[in-house]
Design a protein that fits this description.
The complex is a heterodimer of chains A (about 100) and B (about 190).
Chain A lengths: L8 H9 L6 H12 L5 H13 L3 E3 L9 E3 L1 H27 L1
Antiparallel strand pairs in A: 1-2
Chain B lengths: L1 H13 L3 H17 L4 H18 L14 H30 L16 H30 L3 H41 L1
Helix pairs in contact in B: 1-2, 1-3, 4-5, 4-6, 5-6
The chains are: A mainly alpha (about 100), B mainly alpha (about 190).
């Protein structure tokens, strides 16, 4: 079974940052709006740490205590790759449902 | 309720490794202040604390926030905290079984049993000795870091100090249970 995309916090963060830099709270609000899932603070920062280590996102200068993050070029490519894989799963799933 | 949840969240944040807090602590403090806190966030952040502490034990486990404290101290802290967690779980299960009357499998609640002094002794004394050894080792770590100066002491020893508290709590619980078991057995033998 294909994984539920909303169960992957890293993917949700990449999608959220695709529209521009955001800090933690803004990401939580955005993700809840488009995915209907509220990430916990530990899950959010755990995923951010992995994405930063992989070079998919990068921190910007802090605005007070809030630090925005933005997608890197590598992160944008990773997002395209993951969305492409999901699109294939969705297309094949729909074709099989229609045929059954 | 929200101020209480925020206080718990700040506590869970402080349970993260110092290096992790240095990197993400301010951002998370801001997030805790901005967001509408939920009780489930406390569990999420506490799980993150355990995860990051475990990750910090392994080289490359926490790539953005490598720990600066000695490997042995961190491992010691983690083992002590796990031991304390086990003690809490063990005690909780026994309270459920013997004081609340909820069925708990025998293999999870056997050291509290009073029918066999040998089982009670082995089940309680073993973890207590391990806890004592951990506490002594953790205290040795503190003594070593204390020579670094007051500020270094506060920054670097926090996880190990936590280990000391956890170990002492663990030992105390075990001693109470042990004393209870022994007294029950003595009473049984006198009847």
């Amino acid at each position: 079974m294909a994984p539920d995309p909303t169960s992957d916090p890293g993917l949700l963060i990449l999608v959220s940052l695709a529209t521009g830099p955001k800090h933690g709270h803004a990401m939580l609000i955005d993700i809840e709006a488009f995915a209907g899932r509220r990430l916990g603070p530990g899950t959010l920062y755990g995923a951010l740490e992995r994405l930063e280590a992989d070079g998919h996102v990068e921190p910007m200068s802090p605005e007070g205590r809030r630090r925005p993050y933005r997608l890197t070029r590598r992160g944008r490519a990773e997002l395209r790759r993951r969305l492409g894989a999901l699109a294939v799963t969705v297309r094949v799933g729909r074709e099989r449902l229609a045929a059954s | 309720v929200k101020p209480f949840v925020r206080a718990l969240l700040r506590g869970a944040l402080r349970a993260h490794p110092a290096a992790w807090r240095d990197r993400y602590g301010d951002e998370l403090e801001a997030l805790i202040a901005d967001a509408d806190p939920r009780p489930s966030d406390v569990i999420d952040l506490a799980a993150s604390a355990v995860r990051t502490r475990l990750a910090s034990l392994f080289p490359g486990g926490s790539p953005m926030t490598p720990s600066t404290s000695p490997w042995r101290g961190r491992a010691l802290s983690m083992v002590a905290l796990l031991l304390a967690g086990w003690t809490g779980l063990f005690l909780g299960l026994n309270v459920l079984r013997y004081n609340v009357g909820i069925a708990v499998p025998d293999f999870l609640a056997w050291t509290y049993a009073t029918e066999s002094p040998i089982r009670a002794t082995l089940g309680v004394l073993g973890p207590a000795v391990i806890g004592l050894a951990l506490a002594l080792a953790a205290m040795a770590q503190i003594t070593r870091h204390r020579t670094d100066g007051a500020s270094a002491f506060l920054v670097r020893v926090r996880p190990t100090r936590l280990a000391v508290v956890a170990s002492i709590a663990c030992i105390s619980v075990m001693v109470v249970i042990f004393a209870y078991g022994v007294s029950e057995n003595l009473l049984e033998s006198l009847r």
